[in-house]
Structures
1.
Amino acid sequence: MKIILVGANGTMGKHVNQMLALARHEVIRVGRASGDFQVKMENPQEVAQFYKKIGNFDAVVCTAGEVAFTPLLSIQDTEWHSSLQSKLMGQIHLVQQAIPYINERGSFTLISGVLGDEHIRAGTIAATVNSAVEGFVKAAACELSKGVRINGVSPTLLQDSVKDYESYFPGFIPVSGENVAQAFKKSILGIETGQIYRVR
Amino acid sequence: MKIILVGANGTMGKHVNQMLALARHEVIRVGRASGDFQVKMENPQEVAQFYKKIGNFDAVVCTAGEVAFTPLLSIQDTEWHSSLQSKLMGQIHLVQQAIPYINERGSFTLISGVLGDEHIRAGTIAATVNSAVEGFVKAAACELSKGVRINGVSPTLLQDSVKDYESYFPGFIPVSGENVAQAFKKSILGIETGQIYRVR
């Protein structure tokens, strides 16, 4: 399979990249400033140009997207804007712009996260954006044609992130990047659509 | 109770307005172009100025917010933008800007909708935005202080809207505006927070 991996150099992306390489897929690694191609996913024209360059492919996998962490009482409008543009609209652009190029029975796998389901201090933007991503996945699954599927993966705190973020996630049991990568595999190689695979 | 009702002149707002009037609450009716005050909820500065004018109050209730209905394959970026600005960010501004003015143990009640849970043709933006609103409500409930509560109401197709929208909602059993207004009442006068009242 020819698979586009956006966020390939990120904490989660590295695990997905390794899993896909082990399974001997052709992986096109995309990052903001690293990888085989540099694409700003917030920019739909840039995303469209990238896909045009690649031609056809079987899957788009996204492990990228940033959200701001700020207590509700001090969230600035610019933080809402940048978070919605990055993790929500960025992933939506990756889907919408790919539609002319993705092969029949291809798939999209987007990333949401535990903060749509459980809440931490300063996590209101993350909760809002993750919920939006999941709403998009479930609805888009009903509208895609030619057997193209779309799923989401919602990981909890990663073992790799414990050192940096543990204090923000009291009582959250971290999961291994390898296990989260398996949820991506389930989405890419499985037959389901409109699912959110929660790795907890 | 002194209650601010945003969208008071809309299909759903009229029912909430009537329910609140019957219960003898003081209702401040807000609309884009009608009501006691005209406020564009997409504009956080305008929302802040409005609240400053009103002073303290016990509840903010929103029955307003527009989303575009377009098939996934032809959604334009401008439609995403206007829908996110209206039904998501508009409602978020109503909450964030009210925090300095809302009374202790006051409440917010926002509106989402059935299209976050069940899907119809051209409903992907609605699904995304409704899910985002619900994610915001659940997270914000954990961050609000002074006993201030926040809930959402998610109505299915309204009886009043059957004539115009029936063909888009095959097999959806419509509900009365009066019953949906009761869900708003439950949120405003009840004790729960972080709930989504689904009226189906």
2.
Amino acid sequence: MNEILDQIRAIVGADHVATGAAIHQDDTHDECLTVTPVRPAGVVRPGTTAEVAAVLRCCNEAGVTVTARGAGSGLSGACVGVPDGLVMAFDRMAEVIRIDVADQMAVVQPGITLAALDDALAPYDLVYPVEPGEPSATVGGTVATNAGGMRAVRYGVTRQHVVGLQMVLASGTVLRSGGRLAKLSTGYDLTQLVVGSEGTLALVTEVTIRLQPRPKARATILAPFADLPTLAAAIPAVTGSGVDPLMLEYLDVLSMTGVTQAAGIDLAVDPAVGTRTNAYLIVALQSRSSEHLQDDVELTGAILTNHGALDVYVLSPRAGADLVTARERAFFAARSAGADDIVDVVVPRSAMSDLLLEAASLGAASGSLVTGCGHAGDGNIHLSIFQPNSQRRQDLIHQIFRHALDAGGAISGEHGLGRAKRDAFLALADPNHLALLDQIKAVFDPRGILGPGVGPARDSRRAEAAPGVSAGTDVGPGGDAQRHDANRHLAGLAGATGEVAP
Amino acid sequence: MNEILDQIRAIVGADHVATGAAIHQDDTHDECLTVTPVRPAGVVRPGTTAEVAAVLRCCNEAGVTVTARGAGSGLSGACVGVPDGLVMAFDRMAEVIRIDVADQMAVVQPGITLAALDDALAPYDLVYPVEPGEPSATVGGTVATNAGGMRAVRYGVTRQHVVGLQMVLASGTVLRSGGRLAKLSTGYDLTQLVVGSEGTLALVTEVTIRLQPRPKARATILAPFADLPTLAAAIPAVTGSGVDPLMLEYLDVLSMTGVTQAAGIDLAVDPAVGTRTNAYLIVALQSRSSEHLQDDVELTGAILTNHGALDVYVLSPRAGADLVTARERAFFAARSAGADDIVDVVVPRSAMSDLLLEAASLGAASGSLVTGCGHAGDGNIHLSIFQPNSQRRQDLIHQIFRHALDAGGAISGEHGLGRAKRDAFLALADPNHLALLDQIKAVFDPRGILGPGVGPARDSRRAEAAPGVSAGTDVGPGGDAQRHDANRHLAGLAGATGEVAP
């Protein structure tokens, strides 16, 4: 390892390689509550794509692993390294390379934070609409996790805004995919394959993103509801109306209490309403003109009232901004309140309230407290689990995962698998699906040096040796993270094919 | 082959396998002007996913190729089979499996046409916004090509609406990816990898798509311009204003004459304006309310006037619909007029007018007529090439491709590579990029039975034998279809790494 570190020092400069006690505590963890901090063998901070390529070439030849790291604001441990591997941090590659106003696109380095990017775009009246709730997050980190956030109900998730990448494969090969192009139909989309791959297929060194006009007018509506099913039933009425909400966030009453207390906000909800409230809906609206916005506010208010809101409050711009910021900080409020884990699950939007009720019920049965908030427009829920006993907590979370999968959902909507959910994913996914993921990993990273222990693929060398995806059979329902039940439909298939699959 | 055909007859029923003279002429071609029709060894029409799986298993074992076919409305020859292989047509798998109003999603079989899907969604006030201009196209075909179309400037292309797939690998393995989920972060996105893969990675047997509220109010504006650069410069002003246009289409004056004559439309443009016009912009606007729409029409009209439009016509709903339909039929108008090829290229939007001027100039130099129309909001251009001499036409198209690539573009925005552009892609793309595509193909289809001669990957068996992606080096600019110039930056990289790449 010392020899490799010397080679890497020669590439990036000795100042940009930390080892031993010189490794900063910040570089050993992210914000995930359940992944233990790890001090890697070294932390490398390259300054250019060529340096990234040269470092990877060294590491690939030597079989030394590399874990990519952005701001460390992730919630799955994906950027936490291993003791005998390197962490590659991208904070020295944080430039805006170009802003194309006519194209409404920008090209940036991966280490730029969302806050710095927003500052750079503001003078052009443009915005990058991905807002995962943490402005210190880097673009590279959001690409790695396919980050979503509160505005996704209107604008979609990260992959819908990334149109091009420069990437470095494990071998040191530098590739470009896509470009400043609104459309492309020239073969397999490597951009989309690498987005969401958590640093396990290639390291991203440039990102081309689509931008949107910067909003002119914005309003925030708060609607208390007596129960979650009523709240959930109001969601499609809002999204179907054509008002195109910017945010559709729900918080159960405990979460709302937590975030408002942490932020020092008084919601000023009528006490007679407050005592009947079990869930809150926050609707942010945005329009190019204040007149249109006013119409949208009135329509949305009417829809919510007609769909069972106990009351509808149109917040002042200041109060609205404060409440949205407080909601963004929900993770920190839950952590401060003593949550033992924060779980990200996603289900079809129509299945959200059932999942939440089931999670509360499962929590009660296990002696755990489960509270939650989330992106109600997307069926994407963040549950705070208060259960200090690790085994009981794991059992509860596993039950919640199974319920989500049975409802057609998945075990992560936006935080990623990282280290925290890798085992659950491997245990629950269709083996044929996993075999394909392993082989894709082996194509990009045959020696398995990128992101050890992170993400959906198993050891590359094992995949390399595999004879190919076996001809199994599963025509049952499910998603990326579906529970495997290979024999479920075999009878039907055998009838159609005249043979029983192995 | 006869033995295989008998096996397949036993799977799908003898009525659903055509051979020899029983193969309908329609199943031998698509709409591409340059790909020769081919009569395959057989055309198979499966009725279920299980049948697709069983047929592929047979074919994979026997090494018989399978070319997937939707409606045959494509423009790249991707659905044209080979003489010793099978074509698999999906018109028997054309059902809507479910429409989830609360989720704003639908699950459909691949053979359903866009027209039939629209009929099914209309009662729910929902719309699938992908409109490639041919309502007889199938959902499966649009997934295969990642189809775009006129509404993409607002809603994005096919991949932005497909959230889940059921797919059958060459081996017969049935997999699901994604689901009725607005967000997902559980590993490599197989859905996105298969969208746009032109039937060469897996055959899609179910598609889960996002839906949008059905538009309430729509208006169409026609703006003549004296020249293309002025027209192009108006585009970012419109998109940056926040009016969020549904369509932003340009037609040069010859194309406009062609499409309006073919449709029997009189544009009623003031003759004094018409004589000065060299390019037309069509802007379609859409809003949830007629009041908002009226505001958007006024704002857009003012922007166009301020940006050099010779005049601005707000068309009657009937005239607007007729003009949009006529524009949709531009391909057929150009074909009727005797065009020898229709070429789909995409560049950064800001590079569009330069490319068009260059194409016209290259055309003149080669004694060819080049006219065009396209999706001005996306930088996606369709050029009609009138040049009967095949070699001169190919040379001209190659020059246009090179110009597009040099401008950061690609050789297909939405039609795909198919057979028509495969050779150009293989000749122009970065070899390291191609090696990766080959290996991905080999993961999904190790025996190379899917889509022979179609798309971006070379023969699977060759890729299988390859030792892995070589550690080449290219940090230069470019896109998926970039021109390869591997030594361009070697000097700089050598300086950084202390070694020269092989």
